[in-house]
Specification:
The protein is α+β, with helices and mostly antiparallel strands. The chain folds into two domains: about 200 residues, Beta-Lactamase (2-Layer Sandwich), CATH 3.30.450; about 150 residues, Histidine kinase-like ATPase, C-terminal domain (Heat Shock Protein 90, 2-Layer Sandwich), CATH 3.30.565. The chain has 13 helices and 13 strands. The strands form two sheets. Strands 7, 8, 9, 10, 11, 12 and 13 form a seven-stranded mixed beta sheet that branches. Strand 5 and strand 6 form a beta hairpin.
Length: about 450
């Protein structure tokens, strides 16, 4: 007997335990192409959804420097608005994605009018006399406030905004750093906040704090990688441009300072012209790489393109002492890509294969379908192969084993594959050549 179940519930069931719904809501956010704001909205949704923890409203504060600033508000402003929202959210078959989308639209509608009031909810965390809600973040403690209107530790601006006598402050912490705070309340239903609510809400706060911390850390890593890449690019361009520029300057100076016979002048001008062509080639490759932009993916017939590449004059010139073996399966499916970028990617790989293969070497190009809806193109050279360290660096910008290479060709191929929704794999061992496998999404010819 076989029973099948969905990974996540298709819709919210009021009888499902809140712990399971909470876990399901937050877990599903990892399957969505959400922004930081949307992922935090998922957590606010888990806090306020009727089948989640069930708070009426939630407010998100984020830490910026040494200040705590209100940035997002989710919830109705009146009992009438609450009733309309809850009626909509109780519709049969309503799922997680619909609730998040509804909340996104709700925030988009309300945030503009709330911005002036939210700007007042801005607290210095280093202040010795912090008031709630900032006090919870400052003390790094969950604080439940009751009888807020008579509590002197509650900020009046905040109280004027929320207009509720009881609320729960949840500091968002990670590595003992304050990432922000979430404040929830039951302003509409007036249901008391109990211990179980606090325990479940604290899990949401823990997830939110660590999510913000991880996101900030990732941004720093990306920024460091960008700076490192810029440094590499500057060093690489400087290295590539130095020799042509020095040559042009030197031979130009000779022409200016020393009268020379026509043969010498012609030779100098010829060298200058070749170096300028070299500079133009470098600039073209750099700009071409940076401009990769596929406007529309279309079905592409690989047969005429692959056969045409093998017959190209520049490829033919390199195959005078080598052999290119091309084999394409009968009636191959169409791949989903851009035909121009597809051809350039294959030419890049074939050109590299010819460069690294010795005289008498053989290069194999194969196109076959190993699984449904995918087509594989394989290019194998007879070169020296790569060790693990070489394979790791293969797609790094400006990494090249060629004397005059720019180190952008393989990165270009990788970017094209990603933009076509495919992927590239490399198999290589020292002394055994290298195999590049390109996996393209495919469709049968009858599908167009």
């Amino acid at each position: 007997m076989i029973e099948s179940y969905h990974l996540q519930p298709l819709n919210f069931n009021p009888e499902t335990p809140k712990e399971l719904v909470l876990l399901s809501i937050i877990a599903q956010s990892f399957f969505q192409p959400f922004s930081v704001e949307d992922n935090l909205l998922v957590i606010l949704t888990a806090l306020t959804s009727g089948t989640g923890i069930g708070f009426n409203r939630a407010m998100l504060f984020l830490s910026e420097g040494e200040r705590l600033k209100a940035t997002m508000w989710l919830g109705p402003r009146s009992p009438e608005e609450a009733q309309a929202i809850w009626t909509m959210l109780s519709s049969p078959g309503l799922g997680y994605a619909e609730v998040v989308e509804h909340n996104r639209e709700l925030i988009a509608r309300t945030m503009e009018s709330l911005k002036p009031q939210l700007k007042l909810l801005n607290y210095p965390l280093e202040d010795d006399n912090l008031l709630l809600p900032a006090l919870a973040a400052g003390k790094k403690e969950i604080i439940l406030v009751k009888e807020a209107f008579s509590e002197p530790l509650v900020d009046r601006h905040f109280l004027d905004f929320v207009q509720v006598d009881s609320f729960l402050c949840l500091p968002l912490l990670a590595h003992n750093e304050i990432m922000g705070e979430i404040v929830v309340d039951n302003a509409i239903t007036r249901v008391p906040i109990n211990q179980r609510d606090i325990e479940l809400a604290s899990l949401c706060a823990l997830l939110a704090g660590n999510y913000i911390y991880t996101t900030n850390l990732y941004k720093k890593v990306v920024e460091m990688e960008k700076m490192a890449a810029l440094g590499e690019m500057a060093a690489f361009i400087s290295h590539q441009l130095r020799n042509p520029i020095v040559a042009i300057g030197g031979f130009t100076q000779q022409l200016l300072n020393n009268p020379c016979n026509p043969d010498r002048c012609h030779r100098n001008l010829g060298i200058i012209q070749e170096e300028i062509k070299h500079l133009e080639a470098i600039i073209y490759q750099l700009s071409h790489f940076l401009k990769i932009k596929i406007k529309e993916l279309v079905p592409v017939d690989i047969q005429p393109i692959l056969k045409g590449i093998v017959e190209r004059p520049d490829i033919k010139n390199k195959t005078q002492d080598k052999t290119v073996s091309l084999r394409i399966m009968d009636n191959p499916p169409l791949i989903i890509c851009d035909p121009v970028y597809f051809e350039e990617a294959i030419v890049n790989l074939l050109d590299n294969a010819l460069d690294v293969s010795p005289a008498g070497g053989k290069i194999y190009v194969r196109a076959c379908q190993t699984r449904k809806n995918w087509l594989t193109i394989l290019i194998k050279d007879s070169g020296p192969g790569l060790d693990e360290k070489g394979k790791e660096k293969l797609f790094s910008p400006f990494y090249t084993t060629k004397e005059n290479g720019l180190g952008l060709g393989l990165l270009f191929v990788k970017r094209v594959m990603e933009m076509c929704g495919g992927k590239i794999e490399v198999q290589s061992k020292p002394g055994h050549g290298t195999i590049f496998k390109l996996y393209f999404k495919a469709q049968e010819r009858s599908g167009i």
